Amino acid sequence: MDRVFQSLLIVAVLWTWWPSTIRAVSHEDQTQLLAAELRCPVCQNLSVADSPSEMANQMRDVIREKLQKGENPDQILAYFVSRYGEWILLSPKREGFNWVAWLLPFGAILGGAGVIALIVRRASKKGRGSDDEKQPLLDPRYVQRLEADLRESER
Amino acid sequence: MATWKKLIAPIIIIPLLLLLAYGFKTNPREVPSPLVGQPAPLFALSVFDGGKTGSEQLRGKAVVLNFWASWCFPACYEEAPDLEAAWLAYRERGVMVLGVDIQDRDAEAKAFIERFKLTFPNGPDVQGKISIDYGVYGIPETFFIDRTGKIHYKHVGALNEKLLQAKIEEML
């Protein structure tokens, strides 16, 4: 079960990190995938793929043209970075200080999971206190009845 | 509670709050251009009154390359008279003022030129390639290109007479 889970995890990580443009077939697919990696300069909270602005449309045309000329995805992204700067990329490059942006969420999740595990562990330790402390209080009438029945059964 | 436990929350939260405060102070529109100091991208432009111009024709001149549109109000409207004044003042000293009209309609663009009586060349960037090549993201944007063809300065927003004069003089 552990091995199956590990294998699935590796596949999931690779699928996320492996450049999706490699998996694309047509120029149009590649255009859309590359456009999805670029920030629209006009509607800056949208990608070039999603933005309805004329500038985004023109940028998609530029991407399409460059693909048809034989440029690869890295070259095309590098072109836009050389013109606009790194902010044109929707995801920061995986280098230098940018690694903080990539790894911090995982660190926060692991840290949070660790805190939760610690809290649960402490709570369960308190829960397993001495038997005397946790013995529920019984009605004396039931205790007498129980003892009488036990004596009867032993005869 | 141990001292280190009391300090964990402030140690994590305070730097995050400082980072947030710094972020709120910065203007997301003031993005430095990677093109400043680099050779200006080559371009060719057909102008509204016929004829063509471009990097070839501008070689050896100091160029004020202004990106604008008729719908760009009020900034483009504010700077148009100053650009025309700069053109008239400096054309004899080897300075070229050139307007690139983006994402616009010819009729409106020509009306804008007529309104401000602009005499420097203006032409449409039909497919947006020139504006993308120059990393234009929010007009008006103006590039000051020196005589060696390098981008000396980029300005985002409306220009004024004082700034135009200063930047042109730096290139001469």
Query: Which structural class is indicated by helix and strand composition of chain A?
Result: mainly alpha
Write down the Rg of chain A.
Answer: 31 Å
Low-confidence stretches of chain A: none
- CATH topology category name of chain B: Glutaredoxin
**Structural class by SSE content of chain B:** alpha/beta
Q: What Rg of chain B do the Cα atoms give?
A: 21 Å
What's the multimeric state?
A: heterodimer
Describe the protein's architecture and organization.
- The complex is a heterodimer of chains A (155) and B (172).
- Chain A is mainly alpha-helical and 155 residues long.
- Chain A has two domains: 2-91, Helicase, Ruva Protein, domain 3 (Orthogonal Bundle), CATH 1.10.8.640; 99-154, no CATH class.
- In chain A, 68% of the residues lie in helices and 0% in strands.
- Chain A has helices at 2-17, 20-23, 27-36, 54-68, 73-84, 99-127, 131-134, 140-154.
- Chain B has a single domain (44-171), classed as Glutaredoxin (3-Layer(aba) Sandwich).
- Chain B contains six helices and seven strands, in the order αββαβαβαβαββα.
- In chain B, strand 4, helix 4 (106-115) and strand 5 (122-125) form a beta-alpha-beta unit.
- In chain B, helix 3 (75-90) packs across helix 6 (161-171).
- The A-B interface holds A 41-42, 44, 54-55, 58-59, 61-62, 81-85, 87 and B 28, 31-35, 41, 103, 127-129, 131-138.
Helix-strand layout with pairing:
The complex is a heterodimer of chains A (155) and B (172).
Chain A: H1 2-17, H2 20-23, H3 27-36, H4 54-68, H5 73-84, H6 99-127, H7 131-134, H8 140-154
Chain B: H1 3-25, E1 44-46, E2 52-54, H2 55-58, E3 62-68, H3 75-90, E4 95-102, H4 106-115, E5 122-125, H5 129-133, E6 141-145, E7 151-156, H6 161-171
Parallel strand pairs in B: 3-4, 4-5
Antiparallel strand pairs in B: 1-2, 3-6, 6-7
Helix pairs in contact in B: 3-6
